[in-house]
């Protein structure tokens, strides 16, 4: 602070001049006067934000940050200072520092929707989508009805929750099959049986178990937004007393902390369209080792990948490339994905073989090795083989199975998969196509080896 009346008058005059120049748009002249006011210690907390704003406006990023830091040294909880530092860090490519500054701003001013929204954007851009969703929801609570924030919440929720959840929940055949298996398990083990639901999603299978009489169901869900929704849905349906949902992967559950003792029944629907992508084998092995009783009932107890050899010009255009605009681009096909999700009843393809089992997984087993074996596929029709269309057959309990066979499955969350070959293969009826099939515990392996022509087989015979 100025020490004398004269110094106070001088500082006040400088401040008035600076403000007039700023109002007139002459920031270049206003800036040195604001600096002098700060140097004289006059109304520093009020003047520093103005000076920092001018410095930032003319691109003097480091000086602006120094001004905001000076302000924070005087007032560590100055929400605007933290917020503006966050924006500067964001503009200059320092996302982690931006997030830290914006978090401090939100703590200093919990009622500021702009700070909450900006923090949410930064978290989203940094890939921290769960935290971003929480901040967008907080911003919406502060600004109810804000369409922009509502849009971001819906967009992020869609990113966190794969599209197939809704059609899968509406899949009546799947639901009925799982419920039949769950009812049979509860009837066998009794209402005191402890049920473990891995990857609960909406909580549907847990509620089926509770409705069947299970008094203790422990569920887990790794995606926080989905776990929170499951708790709400379970409460809406009156099963909160019977079901506990943990926001964690099953590999982090512990006996004595999340479960009183090992479970009598495991129910889990983490099968993917190509069977194993959601780490089914790792998850079930861990559950057998740590979370289930030796004689636990496992639902599903087995799953198989079934497929047939197909020809499809439509699918070929998605996975192969040759001549384009007079250029040879065939090499680019080496970069194509080895699999392509398809809707069996909506995609134009033609069978070249009968249905064959590619891989089968016994989920009641305690351990699984990766697998690779030779499969001989009898060709039934002439054509150009694009690959193998694959679907699932799931064994849930005695007499209870489910599949998404493409000839009759139209309404579920599971799609079929095309395991496309590296290049098209010309085949004829009577040929045998040798294919290496198996899995690496996470993905299916489908690789053509050679074609044994019908004429050659006839000669051998």
UniProtKB/TrEMBL annotation:
SUPFAM superfamilies referenced in this protein's UniProt entry, alphabetically: S-adenosyl-L-methionine-dependent methyltransferases, TPR-like
PROSITE patterns: SAM_MT_PRMT (PS51678), TPR (PS50005)
Coiled coil: none
Keyword NADP: no
Molecular functions per Gene Ontology: methyltransferase activity
GO biological process: methylation
Extent of the TPR repeats: 113-146
Domain of life: Bacteria
Entries under InterPro entries matching the protein: Arg_MeTrfase (IPR025799), SAM-dependent_MTases_sf (IPR029063), TPR-like_helical_dom_sf (IPR011990), TPR_rpt (IPR019734)
Alphabetized Pfam families for the sequence: PrmA (PF06325)
Keywords: Methyltransferase, TPR repeat, Transferase
Protein name: RNA methyltransferase
Lineage per the UniProt record: Bacteria, Pseudomonadati, Pseudomonadota, Alphaproteobacteria, Sphingomonadales
């Amino acid at each position: 602070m100025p020490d004398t009346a004269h110094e106070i008058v001088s500082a006040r005059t400088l401040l008035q001049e600076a403000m007039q120049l700023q109002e007139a748009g002459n920031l270049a002249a206003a800036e040195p006067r604001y600096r002098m006011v700060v140097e004289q210690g006059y109304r520093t907390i009020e003047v520093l934000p103005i000076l920092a704003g001018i410095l930032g406006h003319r691109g003097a990023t480091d000086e602006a940050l120094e001004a905001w830091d000076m302000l924070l040294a005087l007032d560590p909880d100055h929400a605007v200072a933290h917020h503006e530092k966050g924006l500067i860090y964001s503009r200059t490519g320092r996302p982690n520092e931006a997030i830290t500054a914006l978090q401090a701003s939100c703590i200093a001013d919990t009622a500021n929707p702009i700070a909450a929204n900006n923090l949410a954007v930064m978290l989203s851009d940094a890939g921290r989508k769960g935290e971003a969703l929480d901040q967008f929801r907080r911003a919406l609570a502060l600004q109810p009805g804000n369409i922009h924030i509502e849009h971001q919440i819906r967009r992020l929720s869609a990113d966190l929750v794969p599209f197939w959840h809704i059609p899968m929940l509406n899949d009546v055949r799947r639901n009925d099959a799982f419920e039949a298996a769950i009812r049979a398990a509860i009837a066998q083990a009794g209402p005191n049986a402890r049920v473990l639901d891995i990857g609960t999603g909406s909580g549907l299978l847990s509620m089926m178990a509770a409705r069947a009489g299970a008094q203790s169901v422990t569920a887990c869900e790794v995606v926080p937004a989905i776990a929170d929704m499951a708790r709400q849905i379970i409460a809406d349906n009156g099963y909160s007393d019977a079901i506990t949902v943990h926001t964690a992967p099953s590999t982090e559950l512990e006996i004595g902390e999340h479960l009183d003792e090992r479970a009598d029944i495991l129910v889990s629907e983490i099968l993917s369209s190509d069977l194993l992508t959601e780490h089914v084998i790792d998850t079930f092995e861990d559950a057998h080792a740590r979370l289930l009783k030796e004689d636990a009932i496992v639902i599903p107890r087995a799953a198989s990948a079934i497929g047939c050899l197909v020809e499809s010009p439509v699918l070929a255009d998605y996975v192969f490339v040759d001549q384009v605009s007079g250029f040879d681009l065939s090499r680019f096909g080496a970069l194509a994905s080895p699999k392509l999700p398809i809707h069996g009843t909506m995609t134009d393809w033609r069978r070249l073989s009968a249905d064959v089992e590619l891989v089968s997984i016994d989920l009641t087993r305690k351990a699984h090795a990766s697998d690779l074996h030779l499969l001989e596929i009898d060709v039934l029709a002439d054509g150009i083989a694009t690959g193998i269309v694959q679907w699932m057959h799931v064994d849930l309990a005695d007499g209870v199975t489910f599949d998404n066979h493409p000839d009759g499955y139209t309404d579920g969350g599971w799609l079929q998969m095309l395991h496309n070959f590296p290049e098209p293969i010309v085949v004829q009826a009577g040929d045998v196509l040798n294919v290496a099939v198996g899995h690496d515990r996470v993905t299916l392996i489908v690789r053509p080896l050679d074609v044994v022509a019908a004429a050659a087989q006839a000669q051998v015979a």
